[in-house]
Amino acid sequence: MSNLRSGHYKLVGWEAKPDKTTVRVGSVEIGNGDLTIIAGPCAVESREQMMTIAASVKNMGVKIFRGGAYKPRTSPYSFQGLGEKGLELLAEVRERFGLFIVTEALSEESVDLVETYADVIQIGARNMQNFGLLRRVGRTHKPVLLKRGMAATLDEFLLAAEYILLEGNTNVILCERGIRTFADHARFTLDLAAVPALRQLTHLPIIIDPSHATGSVEKVIPLARAGVAAGAEGLIVEVHHQPDQARCDGPQALTPDMLLRMIREVRQIFAIVSYGEAEVLDSKAPATAANLY
Ligand code: PEP
Ligand code: MN
């Protein structure tokens, strides 16, 4: 990692904290030896949509539900999300199904409202270097899911997380969600090497978003498998009961049946990866960041 200087991560690096960080979301411990699945639609669209999707993911054992009430859309003419009404529907999902909620805050001002509804506040790729927003979520008591900017180096990504920790919030989950490259066969290029590379540099949990990384449903499950094989501790995926009707990101939405298949597959892969890690730890090799992975 010659291009990455570990010295300037005062809080996110192993030097600051030699044990891995576990982020607690209700009863879920992200990064504590289990694979966390976060699933739900791209956007909150309607009560019927939310309750249908929430009921099916709950049945599969998913504990954390995603859904955007404020959507960062490329075009100002695209659906921007239901706003506070969407947050209310998310609260209803938590109430009815006992699911924990991940939802995005788009701006510093919106955090006041979003933090009252969310169990985890998402900072999207387009806001990864919105430093005022990072400092603001650093002052909440809610965990933060920080997505890597689509053109951010790992150094920039980690320094963005550093902003949040510096304000006192140590509950940060890092999410690799694909970067811009010359490749045009997928929406973005999932940077799988980022997973082991980040693990060498930071104690924070690392998850993968194969939905935004690929942009099309047939690629989501293969890359979810690959992400877990590369060492991700969780996945955040988009699911919709009627992908062709979705108001946002329908082409990348898994149906509930597909999600169930994905979960079964990635759990088996995770078991193999964890078994390998346990063997390394049992071998009594000195506990360095490198052999924790
Ligand atoms: C999302 O997860 O809803 C989203 C917009 O993702 P990203 O910020 O990674 O594009
Ligand atoms: Mn989306």
Can you give a write-up of this model?
This protein starts with 22 loop residues before the first strand and ends in an 11-residue tail after the last helix. It has helices spanning 47-59, 84-97, 111-117, 131-138, 154-166, 194-201, 210-214, 217-229, 256-282; strands spanning 23-25, 28-30, 36-40, 64-66, 100-104, 120-123, 144-147, 172-176, 206-208, 234-238. α1 packs parallel to α2 (84-97) and α8 (217-229) packs parallel to α9 (256-282). It contains nine helices and ten strands. 37% of the residues lie in helices and 14% in strands. With 293 residues, it is α/β, with parallel strands linked by helices. It has a single domain (6-290), classed as Aldolase class I (TIM Barrel), CATH 3.20.20. The structure holds phosphoenolpyruvate (PEP) and manganese (II) ion. Phosphoenolpyruvate is lined by residues 42, 68, 72, 104, 124-126, 147, 177, 209, 212.
Query: For the residues shown, what is the average pLDDT?
Result: 94
Question: What compounds are bound to the protein?
Answer: phosphoenolpyruvate, manganese (II) ion
CATH architecture: Alpha-Beta Barrel
- Spatially, the strands of the biggest sheet line up as 3-4-5-6-7-8-9-10
Alpha carbon gyration radius: 18 Å
What is the number of independent domains?
A: 1
Beta strands, count:
10
Task: Supply the key terms.
binds manganese (II) ion; alpha/beta; binds phosphoenolpyruvate; two-stranded antiparallel ribbon; 293 residues; 9 helices; TIM Barrel; 8-stranded parallel barrel; 14% strand
